[in-house]
Amino acid sequence: MQGIPLSLLNNAQVSETSMNNANVSAIQAENDRALLDLISGISNGETLLGKVLASDENSYTFKTLDSGVTINAKAENGVILTKGATVLFEVNKLSNSEMTLRPLNVNTSSSVTAESALKAAGLPVNNRSLELTVRNMEYGNPIDKKSLTESYRDVALHPEAPVKYIVDLQKMQIPVTNENIEQYKAYLNMKNVFTEDFNEIATTLAESLTEGAETSNGDAALTMNKLMSSLNTVEEFASVLDKNESMPELSEAVKSLTEGVKEEISRYMAPKPEQAPASEEQAAINLKVENRDSTQTERPVIEQTARQALPEEIATDLSERLKTGLKDVFDKYFTSNLTLNEQELPDKAKVKDLYEKLYTETRKISSALEEAVPKENPAAPKITLLNNNIDFMNALNNFIPYVQIPFRGESGAKAGELYVYRNKSGKGIEGDEVSAFLHLDMDHLGPTDVYVKMRGNNVNTEFTLASEESLDFIEKNMDFLNERLSDKGYSLTTEGKVKERTKTPLEEAFEQSISKVLIARTSFDARI
Predict the structure, then answer these.
(1) Cα(406)–Cα(419) distance, rounded to whole angstroms?
(2) Are 481 and 450 spatial neighbours (Cβ–Cβ below 8 Å)?
(3) CA-to-CA distance for 441 and 417, rounded, in angstroms?
(4) Which residues 6+ apart lie within 8 Å of 142 measured at CB?
(5) Which of 229, 251, 312, 348 could link 241 by a cystine bridge, Cβ 3.0 to 4.6 Å?
(6) Bridge pairing between strands 70-75 and 6-8
(7) Which residues contact 181 (CB under 8 A, 6 or more apart)?
(8) pLDDT value at position 518?
């Protein structure tokens, strides 16, 4: 059974205005708010169960049975829903205020077949089991007793997971585990982005190494003591990196940061012009503060002197500088060492080396942190999540050739996804024609699809955008693209249209009807 899409009317966006309109009833305003919350909180691939309340030509009104939210929608492709019918819809979320819905059980014969198959297998007939069976039928999977029972077992073991996630993982022969379910959810919602993992890891590392260095209820001595303790921990972290002879660039950046903080402490401790010159003992202590190789026995003396010399606000400021400085050090290291620039992207060897570094260097950092901070390591789960992301990507690659490439461009580190498809015969596309499909999620234009076909120096592009306003903007500025390509010796022709629902790369793979080479699906603004 092939589901037919419903396009949700722009009800959620209209409601933001209507909630401020005195002529709109309180009940309608409350429903609008509930609808916004529903769309914001739902994920791609999840389902809604709704009862059809009314129909008007190609428009329908239905109420979700779990949350009681009323939704107005218009149908595409001539779908007919019966008033009073209970329909299961699959969600395709476009933004936090817009989604499309695909009915899964509007085909009566498919529903009857699914129910019969469940009864023959001795399985319960309910919404989840029916959805499981219908989705297996859509993918052309067998629904005999043995196959259906095996498929249902995963649904029973993961009652909170959307059935779509389970059937898709089974189709791709990826083990159905809690970790893989979460990774697939992140993939479908474009949240499995390495560069976002880098940011979270950098934040957590900085917090772990400077834990407790914040202001301590007006206690200047305690605040200064925590700053000195954090400095010692950060230096120990750099020392472990040096000892293991790993990541010297990161180690030097960390030591440079701590040296700068120590210089600030020394500056504040230096005698003012109106003060008497420091004693020989005080001068010796100042030198030790400046010396990053101070021994453990010397540090208590340094800390005692610093506590006496620095007011709390200065110690607090330096603590924050150390923490934010560490975050910046890790961010810059990940961006410069664990991403590729535009010249490196086409190099297969560099892509392979990048993934080896992702594994090894994040684990080295985690090990150094565990040695420097011998207690529970908050950064470890973040690094484990990144490694799980890589493992899942490798498993996904067995079904559809795919790799995510952390990319370093003009606007910073972003993430691109690379899909490489073969045609139905299993052979790569030959000849001098290259076809590419790019999906861009941009702040101002919204979701944008670009299909590019190039033969020789002739480039044909087809833009599919979210709205007429976005399309007008592209058309008005197309001369810039044409000029840039012309300077490089290419001739450009362009077409544009407003977006209708398109199949995702995985949907194309599931249907085994791929005839184009999909080069990249990305989450950043592309620049020529």
Answers:
(1) 14
(2) no
(3) 12
(4) 136, 148
(5) 251
(6) antiparallel
(7) 158, 161, 165, 166, 169
(8) 36
Report residue 28 as tokens: 């309608």
Pairing of β 86-95 and β 98-103: antiparallel
Which CATH architecture does the domain made up of 420-528 adopt? Answer: 2-Layer Sandwich (3.30)
Closest CA to 153 of 179, 105, 121: 121
Record the tokens describing residue 37, joined without a space.
Answer: 């919350």
The answer to whether the beta carbons of residues 314 and 308 sit under 8 Å apart is no
Instruction: Please provide the DSSP assignment of 422-433 as one string.
Output: --TTSPPP-SSE
pLDDT tens digits, residue range 389-412?
A: 778 877 877 776 666 666 565 555
Q: Enter the DSSP assignment of 331.
A: H
Task: Name the token pair of 381.
Answer: 């789960």
Q: Three-state DSSP class for 195?
A: helix
- Return residue ranges of the chain for CATH 2.40.50: 6-103
Question: Model confidence over 287-340: pLDDT tens digits?
Answer: 444 444 444 444 544 455 554 556 778 888 888 889 999 999 988 888 888 777
If we measure between CA atoms, which residue out of 417, 419, 393 comes closest to residue 509? Answer: 419
Torsion angle in degrees (nearest 10) through CA of 322, 324, 326, 332: -150
Both tokens of residue 77? 């492709």
* Helix, coil or strand: residue 420: coil
DSSP 340: B
Q: Where in the chain is the domain with CATH 3.30.750?
A: 420-528
Question: What does the block give as tokens for 218?
Answer: 């007006």
d(CA 93, CA 188): 10
- The crossing angle, in degrees rounded to 10, of helices 127-138 and 145-157 is 130
Could you tell me if 326 and 251 are in contact, meaning their C-beta atoms sit under 8 angstroms apart?
no
* Structure letter (DSSP) for residue 164: H
Strand order in the sheet with 446-455: 402-409, 412-419, 520-522, 433-442, 446-455, 458-465, 491-498
Helix pair 248-269, 312-337: axis angle to 10 deg: 160
d(CA 235, CA 224): 17
411 vs 415: CA distance, rounded Å: 12
**Separation of alpha carbons 125 and 366, rounded Å:** 48
